[in-house]
Automatic annotation (TrEMBL):
GO terms for molecular function: DNA binding; transposase activity. Residues 9-150 form the Transposase IS110-like N-terminal domain. Residues 249-297 form the Transposase IS116/IS110/IS902 C-terminal domain. This is Mobile element protein. GO terms for biological process: DNA transposition. Transmembrane segments: none annotated. InterPro entries: Transp_IS110-like_N (IPR002525), Transpos_IS110 (IPR047650), Transposase_20 (IPR003346). It comes from Methanosarcina siciliae C2J. The lineage of its organism: Archaea, Methanobacteriati, Methanobacteriota, Stenosarchaea group, Methanomicrobia. It comes from the Archaea.
Length: 297
């Protein structure tokens, strides 16, 4: 932030409350606690405006800072700093001291502002990240199903490349619901039916009731997660092709980069114009090795 800072407010933000400390260059100090509710944030805004603060600063703690930032940004400068950088300065750890310490850093213009994405970009990124978590959960459930099948000695991997593909789901649904082998094979695609002898060999046993119930539960969860992933992907692609069509085409022109990978890069990087070179972008993402050298070592 350019110019002289006469008053700065430091915020120590938590899930349900925040501590605000105002410091001035003349040594004055005021400190209040606010609830992290709509009323509390409104009271904070009125307080810092009435105190004529030049800047409000806080750590980028989870997303707790977002509603506070949105409330204040149109009225005064708000700095969201990297918590790791602020903690590089040693100090005692209490909420009140943290708030005062952040105010002191802001007053002396010692906080490097983090990049804050627009509201639409943050929402887009949240879709990408939620989709990633759902994919991880789906993988966990598939691993559970693999373990159940292994314990029951159903080696479906011997006949199917993907046991959670269309034909794999048919087989899993069939054996867990008590269908006979002929009924299951009749429902499979022609290409897979060519392996009917091997499929019969694999399915030539009975699944326990406990395993059947667990497999059915896994299949139901996988199906539900697939539906939610499809909903998210529809919103992701609607946004990204509307707002970043050119970037999508450029990224997907690279070998190995598909739609989801390209959308994820755009969601996590934001505006590429924020970086004057590819090297600076790589450095920001932590892809550039750092050099630590002292006394030729």
């Amino acid at each position: 932030m350019a110019g002289i800072i006469n008053k700065a407010c430091g915020l120590d933000v938590h899930k349900k409350f925040l501590i605000a400390t105002i410091l001035s260059i003349f040594g004055e100090k005021k400190q209040l606690r606010f609830e992290r509710t709509e009323k509390g944030i409104l009271d904070l805004k009125n307080w810092v405006i009435s105190e004529k603060c030049d800047v409000v600063a806080c750590e980028s703690t989870s997303d707790f800072w977002v509603p506070i930032y949105e409330s204040l940004i149109n009225y005064l400068t708000v700095i969201v700093g990297n918590a790791r950088d602020m903690k590089a300065f040693t100090h005692k750890k209490t909420d009140n001291i943290d708030s005062e310490f952040i105010a002191q850093l802001a007053l002396n213009n010692m906080i490097k502002p983090s990049r804050v994405f627009s509201k639409n970009q943050r929402e887009f990124r949240s879709y990408i990240r939620l989709r990633h978590k759902l994919v991880q959960k789906r993988t966990d459930i598939k691993n559970v199903a693999h373990a159940i099948l292994a314990s029951e000695m159903f080696h479906l991997n011997d006949v199917l490349t993907d046991i959670f593909g269309k034909n794999g789901i048919i087989i899993l649904s069939g054996i867990s619901s008590g269908k006979n082998v002929d009924q299951i094979i009749e429902s499979l695609s022609p290409n897979v039916r060519k392996k009917s002898d091997k499929i019969r060999e694999v399915l030539d046993r009975e699944m326990s009731l406990s395993a059947a119930i667990r497999i059915q539960t896994c299949l139901s969860l996988i199906n539900n997660i697939d539906e939610q992933i499809n909903i998210l992907e529809a919103e992701i692609f609607r946004y990204v092709y509307t707002n970043h069509n050119r970037e999508m085409k450029l990224l997907m022109s690279s070998p190995g980069v598909g739609e989801i990978s390209a959308a994820t890069i755009i969601a996590e990087v934001g505006d590429f114009n924020d970086f004057s070179s590819g090297a600076k972008l790589a450095s920001w993402r932590g892809l550039v090795p750092r050099v630590y050298q002292s006394a030729d070592k």
